[in-house]
Amino acid sequence: MPNFVDVPYAQTGDSLSTNKMGMRDMQVKAFEARDAQYLLLKAPPASGKSRALMFLALDKLYNQGVKKVIVAVPERSIGASFATTNLTSHGFFADWEVESKYNLCIPGGDSSKVNAFVAFMEDSSATILVCTHATLRFAFDAVNESDFNNCLIAIDEFHHISADAENRLGEVMRSIMSNTTAHIIAMTGSYFRGDSVPVLLPEEEAKFTKVIYNYYQQLNGYKYLKTLGIGYHFYQRSYLTAIDEVLDTDKKTILHIPNVNAGESTKDKYKEVDRILDIVGVVESQNEETGLIYLKRHSDAKVLKVADLVNDNPKDRDKITAYLRDMSDVDDLDLIIALGMAKEGFDWPYCEHALTVGYRGSLTEIIQIIGRATRDSSNKTHSSLPT
User: Fold this and answer.
1) Burial level of 59, CB count in 10 A (0-12/13-18/19+)?
2) Which domains does the chain have, with CATH numbers?
3) How many CB atoms lie within 10 A of CB 315?
4) Closest to 102 measured CA to CA, from 68, 74, 147, 75
5) Whether the predicted model's global pTM rises above the 0.70 cut
6) Exposure string (b/e) for 187-217, b if CB count within 10 Å is 16 or more?
7) What is the pLDDT of residues 151-171, one digit of tens each?
8) Using CA atoms, how far apart are residues 104 and 175, in angstroms rounded to an integer?
9) Cα separations in angstroms, 289 against 237, 308, 323, 341, 363
């Protein structure tokens, strides 16, 4: 079945070109608003929000009296986007440097991370910490709220917050805004949740300076991305009887199988992964160190490298996420099979196809998944396989 949408792009290269400080187009727009105490950055996946945050945060540290920067991400794997980064070689005045002990997006229990957060707040020489949303929520109760004075709180994937009183992250943010002098940078690719609850109440949102960079600016400004295709494919019976018709393993692919509570699920996620592997080829081995699966394809005996993110054993999950975090070459990976992971904040520049099985819970989720395949390269598609 052909894509029902095929969008060509101008390929001007504008959104990837950099100025004398190493900033891309969106980052320049964000940096122009650097003096705002509350900044809401709405920009699509792959537009460079994490690097924009680095520029903004360093300016606040060096020039605006901010003493500490806390970056909170929804899951540990996303923390890699905020790792130590050389910026001075591209023209900026400082580098982004995260001490390993204050990178809390590493394996370990919540209690140890809260203790590290408290130590960071007490360490007068420490300036940058990266943690998960969960760690920020727990640590908020372990420190004095006044400790957040003159700090910058940067919240990635800001749509995880809501105005609902039961949303703990939202409650933490509102309290910090009301009772401290903290600066806040909110970053999101999709400023809506997909439910009836707003991210912020109107009076809260009015306090934020907004920087908006849309998908058209981003994709038209790419140098290599030619088209983005979106397709729907329909099947009868189990999706496993039709997956081989749309799963093209010649393309670098992220395959999201349905949630176990969804009607499309067989209710056994592990067997679904095994069946998909059997449809594609024969498992030759699994790397003990990385967790990577080596799969010999039926059609031509080519060995594919597969990452299984459905396996939720913490030890196995840590191995494969560490491998994904350090990938740097097009041949490092061929296929990711995931359930809830790799939907947002995950960078795989070589991804060509995002294939999702079943209906998604919201347009936010769809935009985030499509964003995995909108890095700048030749041809990208998103397909959905509803019932």
Assistant:
1) middle
2) 17-217 (3.40.50.300), 225-385 (3.40.50.300)
3) 9
4) 68
5) no
6) bbbbbebeeeebbbeeebbeebeebebebeb
7) 999 999 888 887 777 889 999
8) 23
9) 38, 14, 9, 21, 37
